[in-house]
Amino acid sequence: MSKQNHERVAAVLWQDSPEPHDYPAAAAYLSLVLAEETVARVVAALERGPLTRHKAKDLLRASGLQLLGATDPHVAGDLAKVARGEKLSPVLLVRGDAAKGHPLQIADGYHRVCASYHIDGNTDIPAVLVDLP
């Protein structure tokens, strides 16, 4: 999808809560950066956590992750969903600690954050944000 097509999209639509399959995906990612017992507690907190809203540009900055291109297959898939008017699932986040040099962890939804940024970096993205236990 070209940048011109992104500009025609009025807004990214979001679901009211994360998809059930987002939690195992978050656990799979978090198991690479946290101990197993911590992963279980973080995922349980994510399942209970309230939705907050954060700008796409701020999520990328806080995570230290690079913006994936619009041609990345997963980003392109999310951009196509947006173009069709489909709602995206909120993202799952684990708060970083700037004082300790630990970035925000996008436990699930990195591609959705990137797709949203391609449409508008100021997109407010619904997210569940939890602290490490």
List descriptors.
single chain; 133 residues; alpha+beta; four-stranded mixed β-sheet; 6 helices; 4 strands; 43% helix; 15% strand; disordered N terminus; ParB/Sulfiredoxin domain-containing protein
Characterization of the model:
This is ParB/Sulfiredoxin domain-containing protein. It comes from Leucobacter edaphi. With about 130 residues, this protein is an alpha+beta fold. It has one domain. It is about 45% helix and about 15% strand. It is built from 6 helices and 4 strands, in the order αααβααββαβ. The protein has helices at about 5-10, 20-30, 35-50, 55-65, 75-85, 110-120, and strands at about 50-55, 90-95, 105-110, 125-130. A 4-stranded mixed beta sheet has the order 1-4-2-3, with helices on both faces. α4 crosses α6. The longest helix has 13 residues, at about 35-50. The chain is globular. About 35% of the residues are buried. The model is unreliable at about 1-5 (pLDDT under 50).
Structural class: alpha+beta
In helices, the fraction of residues equals: 40-55%
Give the rounded overall mean pLDDT: 93
Question: Low-confidence stretches at least 5 residues in length (pLDDT < 50)?
Answer: 1-7
β-strand amount: 15-25%
Give the ordered list of helices and strands. HHHEHHEEHE
How many domains in all? Answer: 1
State the separation between the terminal residues, measured CA to CA.
Answer: 41 Å
What oligomeric state best describes the polypeptide chains here?
Answer: single chain
Enumerate how many helices there are, as a single number.
6
